[in-house]
Design goal:
By secondary structure, the chain is mainly alpha-helical. Helices cover 67% and strands 1% of the residues. The chain has a two-stranded antiparallel sheet with strand order 1-2.
Length: 315
């Protein structure tokens, strides 16, 4: 089981390119030398997939301890990352979340110390992948104030590290987070919350483009809105609609709401009603309210109501 590193959001970080090829001999060595550690690791993965956070954390801790005794550095790194992630994302106490942040910091440091010859297997993520995922989660922690004091400067520092300058091994979610961060006026220091940094539209466009080209639907949506409003780019409705359609086709409901509004404004009422009815079906399943901000949900209902009231569009 090749366990997904990034469960901090609904989108998964794409696995980085392998640092080195994994041979059948390497797999055999890891399996033989670390049978108990691997067993604990896979039990942790299974428990996490079922939402049994405490059980998963215990199994990952056992895996890390056994791997450390046997000198299996990559397995130990993977297990420690999972422990830190679970403490950060699925614990109730601030002390546990702070401990999760500490572990993720140590994971990033440990990655640099692992030699290329360290035993790995196809079951595990490479040190590069683990480092990127840990850096992304640290950015999220500082952005949201999880286990640490909220600090957007520190958050952006970690996202930048995880983004890897837009290279393929970087985290597309970190690239998205950077793009969204640059679209807002934000207090960059908790010590001076009234001192705001204005949006940096050029940086926002750059990072959102990188993430969108890697298939991140929310980035496609945000990039489409930049083109529609002419923020950081020349206003281009055709390009805007193209990105919004791609995001909508990828299942990103906010993009569908924006498309519906744009079609209504362009008097393409058939299209507006088509999207409105799709959104109404999503509302019945509860998915709309769970994934779309309340104000966008209200706008979707409003425009559909206007179409019914005026008898426009094909119903």
């Amino acid at each position: 089981q090749h366990h997904d590193l990034d469960t901090a959001s609904t989108m998964s970080v794409q696995p980085a390119l392998a640092d080195k090829p994994v041979t059948n001999t390497t797999r055999t060595l890891v399996a033989t030398k670390g049978t108990a550690a691997l067993l604990h690791f896979h039990e942790g993965c299974a428990a996490e997939s079922e939402g049994k956070w405490d059980v998963a954390r215990t199994q990952f801790r056992l895996a890390a301890a056994d791997a450390e005794q046997k000198g299996l550095l990559v397995l130990q790194l993977n297990a420690n990352f999972q422990v830190g992630k679970l403490l950060l994302l699925h614990s109730q106490s601030d002390a546990d979340k702070s401990r999760g942040v500490e572990i993720l910091h140590s994971v990033v440091t440990s990655c640099d110390a692992i030699p290329p010859t360290a035993l790995c297997s196809a079951d595990l993520h490479t040190p590069t992948s683990v480092s990127v995922a840990a850096q992304y989660l640290l950015g999220n922690a500082y952005s949201a104030g999880l286990g640490v004091r909220c600090d957007l400067v520190e958050a952006e520092k970690w996202w930048l590290l995880a983004a890897r300058e837009g290279r393929p091994e970087g985290s597309p979610q970190a690239q998205l987070s950077l793009g969204v961060s640059f679209t807002t006026s934000r207090a960059m220091s908790a010590d001076d919350p009234l001192k705001l940094t204005p949006p940096n539209w050029a940086e926002a466009k750059s990072w959102l483009t990188v993430a969108a080209q890697r298939g991140v639907a929310p980035a496609m949506c945000e990039l489409g809105l930049l083109y529609f409003k002419g923020l950081g780019v020349k206003k281009d409705e055709e390009t805007a609609m193209s990105w919004l359609r791609k995001a909508s086709e990828a299942g990103h409901l906010p993009a569908s709401v924006h498309l519906m509004k744009l079609y209504y404004g362009l008097r393409l009422y058939n299209k507006a009603v088509e999207f409105s009815l799709k959104l109404r079906e999503e509302e019945r399943t509860g998915r709309l309210a769970a994934t779309v901000p309340a104000e966008l949900c209200a706008e979707a209902c409003f425009y559909l109501g206007r179409c019914f009231e005026r008898g426009i569009g094909t119903l």
